[in-house]
Amino acid sequence: MALIRSWVESANAPEGPFPLNNLPCGVFSRPDEEPRCGMAIGDFVLDLAGLEAEGLIALSGGPLLDVPFWNEVMAAGPQVWADLRAQVTRLLAEGGGRMAAPYLVPRAEVELHLPFLVSEYTDFYAGRHHATNVGTMFRGADNALPPNWLHIPIGYNGRASSVVVSGTEVRRPWGQLKGPEDAAPRFAPSARFDIELELGAVVGTPSQGPVTVAEADAMIFGYVLLNDWSARDIQAWEYQPLGPFQAKATATTISPWVVMSAALEPFRVAGPPRDVPLLPYLQEPGPMLYDIALEVALRPEGGAETVISRTNAAELYYSAAQQLAHHSSCGCPMTTGDLLGSGTISGPTKDSRGSLLELSWGGKEPFAIAGGSRSFIEDNDTLTLRGMARGDGYSLGFGDCTGKVIPALADPYKRT
Amino acid sequence: MALIRSWVESANAPEGPFPLNNLPCGVFSRPDEEPRCGMAIGDFVLDLAGLEAEGLIALSGGPLLDVPFWNEVMAAGPQVWADLRAQVTRLLAEGGGRMAAPYLVPRAEVELHLPFLVSEYTDFYAGRHHATNVGTMFRGADNALPPNWLHIPIGYNGRASSVVVSGTEVRRPWGQLKGPEDAAPRFAPSARFDIELELGAVVGTPSQGPVTVAEADAMIFGYVLLNDWSARDIQAWEYQPLGPFQAKATATTISPWVVMSAALEPFRVAGPPRDVPLLPYLQEPGPMLYDIALEVALRPEGGAETVISRTNAAELYYSAAQQLAHHSSCGCPMTTGDLLGSGTISGPTKDSRGSLLELSWGGKEPFAIAGGSRSFIEDNDTLTLRGMARGDGYSLGFGDCTGKVIPALADPYKRT
Fold first, then answer.
1. A253, A330, A405: best mutation site toward chain B, by most B Cβ within 10 Å?
2. Is residue B70 over pLDDT 90?
3. Active site located where (chains A, B) (predicted)?
4. Which of A187, B146, B168, B353 lies 20 to 30 Å from A77 when distance is taken between CA atoms?
5. What is the reported pLDDT for B273?
6. Who contacts B9 (Cβ-Cβ below 8 Å, separation ≥6)?
């Protein structure tokens, strides 16, 4: 597939991130305006609520767009999603009329909000290199992968209330900590605060009862970048036997733009060969991973940014469709706005690891950044995830998924 | 505290469950009516939406009651909760006028719905006898309690979409299973389907940032009975290292009535002595458990009911207030409608165990019921939880928390 040219000139840049092929979904406002649905196009946000009010966009079951979340469109299902993309493509394609021109708002002027209401958040563990790295650190190389890992897309329920949009500052958490050498636990700020580089799948159409992988794939509205902030010292002490809990509930940052599944269609790639065959309910009818280049950048306060990791979403062992199929397998109802984190996406090399835990090998091997080094996140560091799918003469992005870590409160129970 | 007598005679029965002291919160409808908020009183439901529309109840920020959920009242905070109780008590107290009489709907005529919108669901593990029993079965008596158990109210995030109201049938789930002797996993109906007898705390007022135990206690709107249906064979294979997931997501049944914290105030009891001191952020300023007698009954299709367990909510090691304080400790935002399961409440004796896993000791010691025996739940068994707080001449109940387990689908992927 090639670039779809637009009369919005900034949308035709081959390096993207927002050509007419993309049309990612966000919620925006200018000062003193109500947040509403828009799509990124070149240097602009297209005011979809405005176009719908003017009758230039009309969706089945509408109006759906003059609200500060995409959930109504997401719940409307794949035909409405396709229809919306077709209508916006007609409005913005090169050679067409410019009726939509008054609805282009410079991106520099807008604030971006959480693009959808997160109903529930589930975090998976589908990156084989990540699971192997973490397992090797904790259990040794011979027992790195848990026995179920090659059979189940392992996951746990996270905390939807912790999900914030890119740009939100993240306060270093306090928590209950106990190092292996400590006689007793203590309550203190986390000293091993970390990121996890993930792709998040956004469920559009709901389900009751188990769904197949193909059905699950069709339920997914789109994808975001997702940073699953993780307090490794809280995690180490709390996570047995019931899994991560407070270590993962301080914040989860997502990109401001949801890239629709339809836009990622040309970037589908097959999963890896399977060491052991998957059970039929997890087998994929076609390629369901995506070739999306990913990177993590770290910038200290007042310093220069260093890209500390470069990897690809195709490194995953399980697709979001497989995860969603497994999630529903016991009859768990899935709902519009469910967010499924992929798990940390590490590549096979040192410089493609998707967490500081892995990059510094548990803090034992600090890694270099411009002007210093890091084992874990230091106060006032800004961490940014980026993703880019590169096609034939065009590229799709998600917008930066960024957060600055501000110092822990001196006393978290002091009321001011 | 003694019985508060009402002119609704059926509310004055000393065995309860719905005297004027209780006033639990539910959502009800008669055929062809819209569900709305009501309170149980004797043999009736008091139509609060009707009283509010008529001006006989007026709440700050109202109207709040003509909706099919209690979340608006819950979000309004403790002063509104107290004011509502005071207004209803005045309307129904013996010696007062009977303006409310037209708003009494016989309970036998109504359908009860989920009493509130569950925003997120967290399940804890705060029953020491339960944790010890399960730990002994899985790891031996010497390592029964995990090392963190006496320091942390261990919990994991569950699935809010799985929460259903009492009376909803529960379909036996399929899942990925692998017994210790099996060479490979298979996808099959759960053969070890179970209950967990729990108390659920319902968060009313939201929070940002860590809250103290006292603050947490004041945020809790009330309590429900909660059955955390559990597929033990799915759980055993999936739960390492990230905790229970599909084993717990088929359904979670709650009682139709939320008993407000204020009604349970006279039943407060202190927690147990602590083997090791709790960290300050978990220490309780006063008694925060409740003396509530609990029981589990099992009834086979067409057979007689057997009470298979009798225990008490005072057997918990951690209170809901401690759990909520811990839940918020990393800065996790807590929201109106959060549901916190206590964890299985087992007593010290064989006949006070709160799950079939414990009652049958992992299936090795089937227990007797009228006309047969059980290790785990069989198809068409009905499981019922009951709770009763017994005061001076009166008793408070939650209504039955019941569910019938219907057979697994022959093919969960067949679309009819």
1. A330
2. yes
3. 130 (proton acceptor)
4. B168
5. 94
6. B42
The pLDDT-based confidence of B274 (bands split at 50, 70, 90) is very high
Q: What pairing do the DSSP bridges indicate for beta strands A306-312 and B36-41?
A: unpaired
Which one of A138, A157, A405 makes the best mutation probe of the B interface by having the most chain B beta carbons within 10 Å? A157
At residue A180, the pLDDT reads 87
Is residue A113 flagged as an active site residue?
Answer: no
Does residue B39 share a domain with residue B183?
no
Measured between beta carbons, the chain A residues lying within 8 angstroms of B178 are 148, 151
With respect to residue B3, please indicate whether it lies within any of the assigned structural domains: no
The amino acid present at B256, given as its one-letter code, is P
pLDDT in tens, B370-410: 999 999 999 999 999 999 999 999 999 999 999 999 999 99
Query: Rounded to whole angstroms, how far apart are CA atoms A185 and A200?
Result: 34
Indicate the annotated binding residues of A.
Answer: 123, 125, 139, 196, 198, 228, 235, 239, 248, 252, 344
A326 → chain B, closest CA residue: B246
Which residues, at least 6 apart from B392, have a Cβ–Cβ distance to it below 8 Å? B1, B2, B3
Give the integer Cα–Cα distance in Å for B95 and B92.
Answer: 9
Q: What is the pLDDT of residue A404?
A: 98
* pLDDT tens-digit series, residues B317-332: 999 999 999 999 999 9
Is residue A265 domain-shared with residue A368, that is, in the same domain? yes
Query: Do A396 and A340 reside in the same domain of the chain?
Result: yes
CB atoms within 10 A of CB A102: 12
Distance from CA of B201 to the nearest CA of A (A): 17
In a domain, B134, yes or no: yes
Return the CATH number at B175.
3.90.850.10
Residue pair B158/B122 in contact by the 8 Å Cβ criterion: yes
Which residues of A are less than 8 Å from B119 in CB distance? 160-161
Q: In which residue ranges of chain A is pLDDT below 50?
A: none
Domain that holds residue A61: 9-113
Residue B415 has pLDDT above 90, yes or no: no
CB–CB contact A157 B154 (8 Å): no
Do B125 and A242 count as a contact with CB atoms less than 8 A apart?
Answer: yes
β-sheet bridge partners, residue A187: A176
User: Residues B107, B112, B116, B117: what is their CA dihedral angle, to the nearest 10 degrees?
Assistant: -170
Over residues A40-82, the pLDDT tens digits come to 999 999 999 999 999 999 999 999 999 999 999 999 999 999 9
What's A77's domain CATH number? 2.30.30.230
Residue of chain A with shortest Cα separation from B118: A119
How far are the Cα atoms of A113, B222, B333 from residue B336, in angstroms, in the given order? 22, 12, 10
Q: What is the pLDDT of residue B276?
A: 95
ipTM, 2 dp: 0.97
Q: Which position among B130, B151, B326, B327 bears the catalytic label?
A: B130
Question: Are A300 and A174 in the same domain?
Answer: yes
- For residues B319 and B294, state if they share a domain: yes
A335 CB neighbours in chain B (<8 A) are 161
Domain endpoint, select from A88, A113, A138: A113
Identify the pLDDT of residue B34.
97
- By C-alpha distance, the chain B residue nearest A337 is B161
In a domain, A215, yes or no: yes
The gap between the terminal CA atoms of chain A, to the nearest Å, is: 57
Indicate if A305 and A184 belong to the same structural domain: yes
A135 shares its domain with A272:
yes
B414 part of a folded domain: no
Residue B340 has pLDDT above 80, yes or no: yes
Residue pLDDT, tens place only, B113-144: 999 999 999 999 999 999 999 999 988 898 89
Q: What local confidence, expressed as pLDDT, does residue B416 receive?
A: 73
Number of domains in chain B: 2
Q: Is B318 annotated as contributing to ligand binding?
A: no
Check A243 against B241: CB less than 8 A apart. yes
DSSP A38-98: EEEETTEEEEHHHHHHTTSS--TT---SSSSSSHHHHHH-HHHHHHHHHHHHHHHBTTS--
**CB-CB neighbors (< 8 A) of B245 in chain A:** 154-157
